[in-house]
Design a protein that fits this description.
This protein is of the alpha/beta class. The chain has 15 helices and 16 strands. Helix 5 links the parallel strand 4 and strand 5.
């Protein structure tokens, strides 16, 4: 009798344990797939965002089938700092990954205790994690896609380069990296891409911001950029077709976003809207169709929102927010930072509300367009400098692009001045707004432990610069070396000034 009872109890425990295991596995199997389509160097130049010169039917339809965020901004307007923030859901300034292409030499950057990249969280929840470029092929799946993280990370956080390699029924988290604005090499579009598109955008149809001259080089470059938007739109269609072919489109959340704005004089690397404002679209089960949200969101919100949609708890340390949560409280401001890019030492901070933007320059005694080998070799910068030297720019263009120094503080009325042309920081009528936003920025820098409040150490700068001038097996770059020497000279003559 006792033996029979014992056998029954053991059997009951085993059955209960098996049932609990199945219950634990069930949510993972039922969880949706998460796909990030993440694009390089591209602003919100799509039809659904008001672009008139070109047509972008696929992205427009994605917005119609999902929700579009009209006021999405990056926390860093350059690739590696942006991607370091996105993959952790943390401000790059908090995790010490704010300098572009840093931690690549002997000196390394490690994430703060407890902070892990989001693919790790997906893996722990049973997800298959992939990262790839497009099209997905055996070669691309092996090579994986662009990461560009400034901190040390384990390549094992990505299982593969193709979601089709997962176990049957396993949910997946995929990042698809597209070159976007980088497709326009030397200000021109690849003829093969134009052939795919069927035509090229005419430079005569291009509209430029008032701080850019209507020069043939700039017009041709912007036309090529718009064609890169068209090509991106076409490729997004291919991605959606592959998901549909696999029977996954209805169970997958698709995010579409870019890593910062267009690579141009006042765009990429800077905190004007040309560099900060990006497209942001979400499509998937239960997402409101055709909805347009005008509240302020940051690009790191994509990380937290993705976890929430997957049924994964958002870590307490994560600074991004679930913007789809029922109890979500809209942001009344977004924040951004720009720090060293390549060899060029810099420090800029911004806080943006719906009405105003406040920018603080940590190096006001230096020109905005400091020497930078990466940007100075672009045809648009070469042309702008030639026009400046020849006195062919307007007074406004000269002032905004080539003034020898900058204001320590900038304040813009974004409703009246969307191109951010008229700095109101010294206007007594806007004194209250200036003081309010100055305090908001100070509070954010302190609360988030902004590590850019102090200059980068000589050891880290020298370590990274060794990589730039030959550490990767190259013979060195004389112009970069000259710029490095200038940065060290200016560190003494034109030092950092954090507080106004």
């Amino acid at each position: 009798m006792a033996r029979t009872l014992f056998t029954f109890i053991v059997a009951l425990v085993c059955i209960s344990h098996a049932a609990l295991s199945l219950a634990a596995d069930a949510p993972a199997k039922a969880r949706p797939n998460i796909v990030w389509i993440f694009v390089d160097d591209m602003s919100a130049n799509f039809g659904c965002y008001g672009e008139k010169t070109i047509k972008t039917p696929v992205v427009d339809q994605l917005a119609a089938d999902g929700s579009r965020f009209s006021h999405a901004y990056v926390t860093a307007p350059v690739c590696s700092a942006n991607r370091s923030a996105l993959i952790t859901g943390m401000y790059q300034t908090t995790i010490g990954a704010h300098h572009h292409r840093s931690g690549r030499g002997k000196e390394k950057i490690h994430l703060p205790q407890g902070v892990v990249p989001v693919p790790v969280l997906f893996q722990k929840a049973g997800y298959f994690t992939t990262i790839t470029s497009w099209p997905i092929s055996a070669k691309n799946a092996k090579a994986r896609g662009k990461t560009d993280y400034n901190f040390q990370w384990d390549a094992k956080m990505y299982d593969h380069g193709d979601w089709r390699a997962r176990a049957k029924g396993q949910p997946f988290f995929t990042q698809i990296q597209l070159p976007g604005g980088k497709l326009r090499g030397g200000g021109r579009m690849n003829p093969n891409i134009i052939q795919k598109l069927g035509s090229a955008t005419s430079p005569d149809d291009v509209t430029l911001a008032p701080y850019y001259p209507r020069d043939p080089v700039l017009l041709g470059d912007w036309a090529a950029y718009l064609d890169s938007c068209r090509e991106t739109d076409r490729v997004v269609g291919e991605i959606l077709d592959r998901l549909k072919e696999d029977g996954l489109l209805d169970t997958t959340y698709v995010f579409f976003m870019t890593d910062h704005g267009i690579s141009h004089a006042r765009g990429k690397q800077f905190l004007y809207d040309e560099g900060m404002h990006v497209p942001f679209i979400i499509k998937g089960p239960g997402i409101a169709k055709g909805a347009v949200r005008s509240d302020l969101v940051e690009h790191i919100d994509m990380t937290a929102t993705s976890l929430a949609l997957a049924g994964i708890e958002i870590p307490s340390w994560m600074q991004g927010r679930d913007i789809l949560a029922k109890d979500y409280k809209e942001r009344d401001a977004v924040f951004a930072a720009r720090d060293r890019c390549d060899e060029t030492v810099e420090g800029i901070r911004a806080v943006r509300t719906q009405e105003y933007k406040y920018i603080r320059n940590f190096y006001p005694d230096r020109p905005m367009l400091q020497p930078n080998n990466y940007k100075d070799n672009k045809p648009i910068l070469i042309t702008l400098r030639k026009l400046h030297d020849a006195g062919k720019l307007t007074a406004l263009q000269d002032k905004l692009l080539f003034a020898p120094t900058r204001a320590h503080e900038e304040l813009y009325d974004l409703k009246a001045d969307p191109f951010e042309l008229n700095n109101l920081a010294g206007d007594p009528a806007h004194r209250d707004t200036l003081l309010k936003l100055r305090a908001r920025l100070d509070e954010w820098m302190k609360k988030t432990d902004d590590k850019g409040r102090l200059p980068e150490s000589d050891a880290m700068y020298d370590s990274d610069m060794a990589e730039y001038v030959g550490g990767r097996g190259g013979k060195g770059d004389s112009q970069t070396e000259k710029n490095i020497a200038l940065m060290k000279k200016w560190a003494i003559e034109r030092p950092m000034k954090v507080n106004p």
